[in-house]
Amino acid sequence: DTAVSQTPKYLVTQMGNDKSIKCEQNLGHDTMYWYKQDSKKFLKIMFSYNNKELIINETVPNRFSPKSPDKAHLNLHINSLELGDSAVYFCASSHGGTPNTEAFFGQGTRLTVV
Amino acid sequence: SQQGEEDPQALSIQEGENATMNCSYKTSINNLQWYRQNSGRGLVHLILIRSNEREKHSGRLRVTLDTSKKSSSLLITASRAADTASYFCATDAGTALIFGKGTTLSVSS
User: Is A83 helix (H, G, I), strand (E, B) or coil?
Assistant: First the structure.
């Protein structure tokens, strides 16, 4: 059983389009995250959700919006996609509102904007 | 903002040799974690060391933490080809993990 699953694994789309990436965890964790990994492998935290409340929101454009229908899901919506949005996006989850335990990561979604 | 910084950026060794990676961070922490990322895959947790611990072992992994120097090291002993991956240190920023840029380890047989 996959602990943290993301769909799709690959996403190729044109500039200006709107897309969503889904994430589900079956670990019973109460905190979920979205990270962006650029071409140099630098991981940047984008969002963190704890019990359906947004905890942090780094300097991420408003075009990105996380949506959590329940504790097991944290989807990422991206509007008006730009070339610079091309990256690998990782969903993760952990137990507790602060990262004092290990985080479990999904396999990533490689987004390519053309 | 980036918290951790790994050194070296890349490391190439032969099977059986030991690999040492270092991580420096900027602010006080509650804990420091190390993760591994195989090519094209997600990150996998390796080990967590708390701020009041100085050393921790897990199998062939040995992690040290020096809070006075704000640094940590990850030692992989008797490396194997399967250890080829990128290794990241991560520190807690209160609400999420902040990752360094990683060390890319290549182990050749």
Answer: helix
